[in-house]
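This section describes the prediction task in plain terms. A model, or a person checking by hand, is given the sequence of a single protein chain and must write out its three-dimensional structure as a string of tokens. No templates, partner chains or ligands are provided. The sample shown here is typical of the held-out split.
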Amino acid sequence: MDTVSRPDDPIHSSAPDDEPRALTDLGAEGEDGDRVSVTDVNGSVARFDMAYSPPGGDKTRFGPPLAQRLPSLLFVVFALAMVAVVFIGEGGPSSSRLHAFIVEGDLGRPLSAQTLAFIVLASAIGTAFRARMRGVIVRPDGIEARYVLALGIPKSRRWAWSQIERIVVDDTQVMFELWNGQYERLPPVAEPKKLSDLLEHIAATRKLRLTRLRPAKVAKVH
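The expected answer:
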């Protein structure tokens, strides 16, 4: 017995099972008055992955080595000692030589010992902060090098990853070969091995050329 298929019969319907649905106008507003989002239209969660995300936040900072910070730290220690000596002399007995040198000596000075001590302390703190401005900052979109020139003038250089053709690293320094053929050397940092390992990871992620220099072995003479 022949069966007659009906147009509304879902089993015998001749229409394809998966008909393309018309895309919802992304600019249209939904029932609640808000614009329709991409995730609402496609019914899935939109994922956006970056080529590189530095660990621990938006940027990774590498400060200067101890050899560059040590002079400013010694200056701060000297300034603190100077302030302490001034307060000890002012609060000490009037018969002591330190009290006479600071308190009685201020009568003939254009600037008191206490004022001078705080000026030196402020200058030392500023020098310490300026010394910490050196270093390297690795960002998702590039890398920034910070220097301190003569007379304490700060200088900053920044390169995007697209400008870098090759990264040259060793255990102590990092150098870039730029797209225009120039070479740029990064300032020394306190953790050079960690910086070189991070740049090696970025080079592999962004398909950048990387050259790691190995220390030359000195042949022993017998």
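For orientation: The CA atoms of residues 172 and 178 lie 20 Å apart.
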